[in-house]
Amino acid sequence: MSGALLVAGTTSDAGKSMVVAGLCRLLARGGVRVAPFKAQNMSNNSAVTVDGGEIGRAQAMQARAAGLAPHTRFNPILLKPGSDRTSQLVLRGRVAGSVAAGDYFTHRDRLAAVVADELASLRAEFDVVICEGAGSPAEINLRATDLANMGLARAAHVPVILVGDIDRGGLLAHLHGTVAVLEPADQALIAGFVVNKFRGDPALLEPGLRQLHTLTGRPTYGVIPFHDGIWLDTEDSVSVRPGGLVGPPQPPRGEQTLTVAAIRLPRISNSTDVEALACEPGVDVRWVADASDLAAADVVVIPGSKATVSDLAWLTERGLAEAIRMHAARGRAVLGVCGGFQMLCRRIDDSVESRAGTVAGLGLLAADIVFDREKTLRRWDTPLYGFEIHHGRVVGNAEQDWLGVGIRRGAVYGTHWHGLLDNDAVRRAWLTEVAGAAGRTGFVVADDIDVASRRDAQLDLMADLLAEHLDTDAVLDLLAHGPPSRPTMRTALDRPTG
């Protein structure tokens, strides 16, 4: 078998990443040498690769699904937004400056060559490459600079499956409209549709899918049911909403639960760090953005940030900074990860990210942070798993060492390590400490939760759902023969006005 396929979506968070991961796992289980590929990702959730670079976390997860170690070639272009208009450009795993939305066109040809080179290399090495689109191909205002959706599909002549999340409503219009607004040459590559997160009786949906086929000339390859067991490795910030739970709550093993308030920063990065806590029975993790939400919390977590100084100012403006200090003053636990760790320190000297110079931190840890122009990228797999992605370095530290990967003062903890809580022994020991600090004597830390196995089980679950509900023969045919002949629809640009 040989071939490539692009999984595009009607919106962000439509399920592209999980469908790609499920296909990678399904094919790998069948003995196919498969690799994931996302030409360009825009996300502050990232991971360090075995070749010492940085890629989107979803591509690291998809590599795991395919039985591969994460590598920069799976995501050659990563944009990490630091504001509404500028992003850090990570090219082949390394920082290559910053780009503004308005001048991205000037980089297009150079970046397109990188994408073409990496995809060609993967297709030469692997039997199959499953590509993931970015956002939606219906963003026709961005078509001229598109490298990840129809720009990629057209350049590489690969078929496209369009995935939509029916749980949001309006999906049939989204699917029809996405095809309708595309140029005819782009339309020709849209092979068919996949409905994601369906609840209810599929028979009720069937008449709509038949009409969609009549209107577009394209079949629906599958209707994937909603499953609340799939929630780990969420990449898109769209799904990280204040007030929302991180994963379905697990019943406690003891008489009490432990409540974790995770701060939903405006420029949050690696929000997935708190997912390991949500795997624990009796640990309820909720995203919060208001000071009042901290009053009943046993633990506060400040996650990473792509705009540390700006997000620190946001904490102050919303009263969260003072609420965090009060929480710590009561002896309850506060954990800062990466940017959140930097905020807990006395001072931050940043002439790189925000160029704000020296600003005061929360002062809960006796250490200072100085930003380096060179980004620190490190990955460990033994004896502990974790990785670092940051410009800030710790200086003037007068605090107690924490596990050799961070510092602590009483119940205030800080680390630059992402993924630290995925280490089961570390997480259990830490939960025992913070439950004691909160006076939760009736909380029992489970001794049988294996987060790595939970992540693998979700990949297998997604593969199982695709095996049962997706027309896999049709997908294999696309991989073997490329884009099928599909009719051209009239676009909005073709229609007369008046």
From TrEMBL:
Keywords recorded for this protein, A-Z: Cobalamin biosynthesis, Glutamine amidotransferase
Positions of the CobB/CobQ-like glutamine amidotransferase domain: 259-425
Regions that span the bilayer: none
GO MF: ABC-type vitamin B12 transporter activity; catalytic activity
Pathways involved: Cofactor biosynthesis; adenosylcobalamin biosynthesis
Gene name for this UniProt entry: cobQ
Family designation: Belongs to the CobB/CobQ family. CobQ subfamily.
Species name: Mycobacterium dioxanotrophicus
Gene Ontology terms: biological process: cobalamin biosynthetic process
Annotated ranges, domain CobQ/CobB/MinD/ParA nucleotide binding: 6-230
Annotated protein name in UniProt: Cobyric acid synthase
Catalytic machinery residues: C338 (nucleophile), H418
Annotated Pfam families: CbiA, GATase_3
Function (record text): Catalyzes amidations at positions B, D, E, and G on adenosylcobyrinic A,C-diamide. NH(2) groups are provided by glutamine, and one molecule of ATP is hydrogenolyzed for each amidation.
